[in-house]
Amino acid sequence: MEVKTITPPIVQLEGVAKSYGGAVALARLDLDVRAGEFFTLLGPSGSGKTTTLRLIAGFERPDTGRILLDGADVARLPPFDRNVNTVFQDYALFPHLTLVENVAYGLRAKKMPKAQAEAEAEKALEAVKLGAYGGRKPAQLSGGQRQRVALARAMVNKPRVLLLDEPLGALDLKLRHQMQAELKRLQHETGITFIYVTHDQDEALSMSDRIAVFSEGRIEQVGTPFDLYERPATEFVADFVGTSNILGHALLRPEKVRLQPLDAPVPEGANAKPGIVRESIYLGAVTRYQVVLDDGALLAVMETNSVPLGNRLRLNAGDQVLAVWPKAAAVNIGN
Amino acid sequence: MRSETFIWAAVVAIFGFLFIPIAIILLYAFSAAPIPAWPIAGFTLHWFPDTWHDEQVREALLLSIEVAALATVMAILFGALAALAVVKMRSASREVVSFVAVLPIALPGILTGMALASYFATWGVNLSYWTIVAGHATFCTVIVYNNVVARLRRMPRSLTEASADLGADAFRTFRLVQLPMMASAIGAGALLAFALSFDEVIVTTFTAGAQNTLPLWIFGAIRLGQALPEVNVVVFAIIVFTAVPVLLAQKLIGEAGKMAR
Question: What ipTM is given for this predicted complex?
């Protein structure tokens, strides 16, 4: 059930469509983003999520429809007349300017005196732990450092909405996890609304208040990470978010299935199907199995390795097992 | 290695073919004999002051420098603006416009020269200093255009978008982002354009009135078989005037390449 918010959404897209030549990038999109949200646009490449972000930033104009920012239609305004800022995928730092000049750029464009703008820029660089680097040029920084400068350069302007276009895509895994936490912290501290584009579902689930899942220029579902994972509206969402077993029209997530010996008792109200383990992959905290059920269906199963060593039967490829899951664990897609 | 020896022999032969004639002319500039002859009988430096004090040579030199400078200024203006416009165009019209833009340098000089001469004649424009400048500006513009277009194409679109995103209008973006990033490409293009204009003969022949640029003066002197030692000195000077800008331009392009990424 949808809870009606009293404050109007900070960003509203109404019937927004966009084509390039004959190719439809977005087909009549409707979207509301609430003030203070961490909102993610998730989807595979070419699904329209980046086009949506660029429309909100003003780099593209919609063919039809309205884009409301704080209730006012900005669809025809150029980027420099919109109170939003963007963190670009390639960071887009100005190579001929120092970090302080880069970060002060937006403040200077809004006619802030030079000394004040540079003082603010220094502060913003300190906030992303680059206070000592203000005099350097972007070429002298690592990828992670450039990423933080791009963030400081956008956030120093205190935009109503911060748009982030796959900002962590170029970073290695460890740095990416650090920056995810850092972004969440910054968003929490500043209260700025974030609209975040990614194709990485783990990233989307771990960071977002709400997520819009895109496919082929349409939104498949908008919801919390919990909604998308536990109650996917379409088969596409079920498949794109997490690993899924589709049984008829029902979704069964791998971690909701237990594997037990054939002769062990089946709990009340559970489904049980015999099968043979085809593959067993030990991943440290969990073990992933592929089980071929006797009816021919392939079932992905994930078991946590929570049982103390030695107490547990280890399953290997070829073992006969009983796959057991509570009846309620298989949910109908679209309910 | 045999193949390596062969390659080096080929390199030496080709460079010899290209540069030995030039080296000989440079050597003749120091020859004491009034008519170039081999072997060189004796050496002197007195052709240098003689040439310097030749009123005709000085006038020609001055004209060449002025024409090259003015043509370069026009080339910077037209070439850089054309490049900015072409980069913004959609792909189909961009192909057409960029083809037309580089035509002046693809066309034979004699065609450009004849066309300009008949154009000036049709409109009753007297051939003068300014018609030479206009003629040179045609191919100089292409040089600057090519350099700047190459730079702008390598510049990610996100840079101008980021500038607009941060509140800068088109003019401010041009002044603070595009122009500084284009500067070294414009500089390199301008140096090459200057060098090209300085030793241009064919278009100049058709667009000059009574004026003599330095290359035209050489052309005349050789045809008449006059002042041959001075010709050698002038060639010496032209090599310096054209080689230095070209080398500087290469250095500029190289450094900008390093900075871009």
Answer: 0.85
